[in-house]
Design goal:
The complex is a heterodimer of chains A (100) and B (168). Chain A has 100 residues and is an all-alpha fold. Chain A has a single domain, classed as Helix Hairpins. In chain A, 78% of the residues lie in helices and 0% in strands. In chain A, helix 1 packs antiparallel against helix 2 and helix 2 runs antiparallel to helix 3. Chain A is elongated. The termini of chain A are far apart. The model of chain A has no long low-confidence stretch (mean pLDDT 83). In chain B, helix 1 runs antiparallel to helix 2 and helix 2 packs antiparallel against helix 3. The longest helix of chain B has 31 residues. Classes of the chains: A mainly alpha (100), B mainly alpha (168).
């Protein structure tokens, strides 16, 4: 039997891991994957609460979050591709054009 | 198991290994959805994440053909940034845990809404019609944006811009 506490704890661990990934890694692709991990953690929490409350609104919201995640992944990967063509790197430490 | 996959994902050196670890996480989360009475979302999770997003990520990894990051600059950032990042992430987790310990969660209502495709579709097309349509417009915009961004620039004015960028 899974209680809401288990789901929330699991979701918190996954979200923290994603946040650590965003802060630690220098690779733009890894950043994108960590963001996906965080979105998944939030989705899991939403499904857990949807079951806890007993209606489907949370699951609808998860569906919409998935659509947004797909859009974000597509645009983000296209950006990384363009970035790689112009700068020949995906390491975000070396993308410092904007610095004056 | 998913936690193990997450740790693996963040710690892998090569992006491809991290993508495979992310696949493990996604499939585990899909199993969690089935356990949480949401079979439709479990299917969508597999199809959208494992089927579309992960394939896209792996495709881009292959396309870029990354070599090992061995630049001096990234090495310089490495150790302090890693420590700070892990400490901040740990603090975030502790904050989550503290909040969860403090919050009194009400008793479950007892009724169980199973998220099968029929129920989800009905709710999506009646109560939540507007967000559904907005999501479709957003997806269209994302497709157009991705194509324009990833397209090679061929028109003369665009070439001037890109050559100016190369010179600077």
């Amino acid at each position: 039997m899974i209680t809401i506490g288990h789901v929330m704890g699991f979701s918190a661990i996954l979200f923290s891991l994603g946040a650590i990934g965003v802060m630690v890694r220098r690779n733009a692709l890894m950043l994108l994957m960590s963001i996906e991990l965080m979105l998944n953690a939030v989705n899991l929490a939403l499904v857990g609460f949807s079951r806890h409350v007993g209606n489907l609104n949370g699951q609808i919201l998860v569906l919409l979050v998935m659509a947004v995640a797909a859009a974000e992944a597509a645009v983000g990967l296209a950006l990384i591709l363009t970035l790689f063509r112009t700068k020949n790197t995906v390491s975000i430490s070396e993308i410092n054009r904007l610095k004056g | 198991m998913a936690v193990l996959g997450g740790v693996l994902m963040v710690s892998r050196k090569s992006p491809l290994g991290a993508a495979m670890a992310l696949l493990l996480v996604l499939v585990s989360i899909s199993a969690m959805y089935i356990l949480l009475d949401a079979p439709f979302l479990a299917m969508v999770q597999i199809i959208v994440y494992a089927g579309a997003i992960l394939v896209l990520i792996v495709y881009v990894i292959m396309l870029l053909n990354l070599r090992e990051p061995s630049q001096g600059l990234s090495k310089f950032y490495k150790s302090p940034q890693k420590i700070i990042g892990i400490v901040a992430g740990g603090a975030l987790f502790l904050e989550f845990a503290w909040t969860m310990a403090k919050t009194a969660i009400s008793k479950s209502s007892g009724e169980i809404a199973i998220g099968n495709p029929e129920k989800i579709g009905e709710a999506l097309l009646t109560t939540h019609l507007l967000p559904f349509e907005v999501a479709s417009v957003l997806l269209l915009a994302a497709i157009v944006g991705a194509v324009i961004l990833a397209k090679r620039e061929k028109s003369p004015e665009k070439n001037e811009v890109s050559s100016a960028k190369e010179q600077s």
